[in-house]
Specification:
The chain is an alpha+beta fold. It contains six helices and seven strands. The protein has helices spanning about 1-10, 95-100, 125-130, 150, 165-180, 190-195; strands at about 15-20, 20-25, 65-70, 80-85, 90-95, 105, 110-115. The protein has a five-stranded antiparallel beta sheet. A two-stranded antiparallel sheet has the order 1-2. A hairpin with a 3-residue loop joins strand 4 and strand 5. It is elongated.
């Protein structure tokens, strides 16, 4: 009885079968492929082996460095780097009074770091921490008008976006200290005000930033 149990636990062996002059191994019927397959593939969760690593900023991206934006609404503008945010995001400002660029986040891949530095002395650290928080730049949800009110509002001009008073005060607080520092150095105000562009024949790889 014990020998039969041992034999039953072992997988069924395949047998050799002659086909003409040659032989071929034929698997046991329990080992053959199934003729029925499910109509829909069962989705299996993919194993993610990569771990999220903290972004390493470039050595040239030091707070106070003047950057050139390469993409987005303000491409070509020169801005001042204020702070590093998680996952390779940079907090920059124009300042707004100089070139119209407000406090905003930009990807570190789409900037060129120049050799020009601006002194950040006098900027409130608490304001920078507040601006660097996750929910600071989230847009407010619009209340969709429904019914007759939405029907009669179709032909009217859209309302202008109103900047939150808290964001405007933060912008003024940051820019005030920067503007005082910009006035101390000659031509720096005009440098930030001008926009960067390439002309025919320019060689950016030979330029000194």
């Amino acid at each position: 009885m014990s020998e039969k149990m041992k034999q039953g636990s072992e997988p069924p062996a395949s047998r050799m079968k002659k086909f003409g002059k040659g032989e071929r191994e034929v698997p046991h019927h329990t080992q053959k492929a199934k003729k029925f397959y499910p109509a829909e593939d069962e989705s299996k969760p993919k194993k993610v082996r990569k771990s999220i690593k903290p972004a390493r900023p470039r050595a040239s991206l030091v707070p106070g460095t003047v950057l050139i934006l390469l993409a987005g609404r303000f491409r070509g503008k020169r801005v001042i780097l204020l702070k590093h945010l998680p996952q390779g995001i940079l907090l920059v400002t124009g300042p707004f009074k100089v070139n119209g660029v407000p406090l905003r986040r930009v990807n570190a891949r789409y900037v060129i770091a120049t050799s020009v530095k601006v002194d950040l002395k006098g900027i409130d650290e608490k304001t920078l921490e507040k601006v660097g928080q996750e929910g600071y730049f989230t847009r407010e949800k619009k209340q969709d008008k429904s019914g007759e009110e939405a029907f009669f509002k179709q032909g009217e001009k859209p309302e202008k976006k109103k900047v939150a008073s808290a964001r405007a005060s933060d912008q003024k607080a940051v820019d005030k200290a920067l503007l005082d520092n910009l006035k101390k150095e000659s031509m720096l105000y005009e440098y930030l005000r001008s926009s960067f562009s390439l002309r025919k024949g320019d060689r950016p790889h030979e330029m000194k930033w």
